[in-house]
Design goal:
Keywords: Bacterial flagellum, Cell projection, Cilium, Flagellum
Main location: other
Number of helices: 5
Shape: elongated
Structural class: mainly alpha
Mean pLDDT: 89
GO cellular component, one term: bacterial-type flagellum basal body, rod
InterPro entries: Flag_bb_rod_N, Flagellar_basal_body_rod_CS, FlgB
Distance between the termini: 28 Å
Radius of gyration: 17 Å
Subcellular location: Bacterial flagellum basal body
Number of domains: 1
């Protein structure tokens, strides 16, 4: 177990995975009109489980867990040009993930503030 894991627990890895998922969802949104583009997403629960059980527990392990848990989205209504991005779905998932990212970040900020106060003897 690394020092980071002891201080932040699972939240550090969750924040890194949520950040990667935000980038992926933003890419899907940006390519909503690109013919043949296939929407991708990360199975967050599976990626987090993998990231927390890997031996090294480094940032590279979190990235590998995200890659291993990535898949293509199956559209509800396929488009004629082969694009599988459904803009409303992507926007909803992006907003939901952004809220969860901010929540995790707030938790970590609180944890850091607590540690800082403890070090100062407050």
């Amino acid at each position: 177990m690394s020092l980071e894991d002891g201080l932040f627990g699972i939240h550090g890895k969750a924040l890194a995975l949520r950040s990667q998922r935000l980038s992926l969802l933003a890419s899907n949104i940006a390519n909503a009109s690109t013919p043949g583009y296939k929407a991708r997403d990360i199975n967050f629960d599976a990626a987090l489980k993998e990231a927390t059980t890997q031996a090294g527990k480094s940032a590279a392990d979190v990235s590998k867990a995200a890659d291993d848990s990535m898949g293509y989205r199956v559209p509800l209504q396929p488009s004629l040009d082969g694009n599988t991005v459904e803009l409303s779905t992507e926007q909803t998932l992006f907003a939901e993930n952004a809220v969860k990212y901010r929540t995790t970040l707030s938790f970590l900020e609180g944890r850091i503030n607590t540690i800082t106060r403890a070090l100062k003897g407050e």
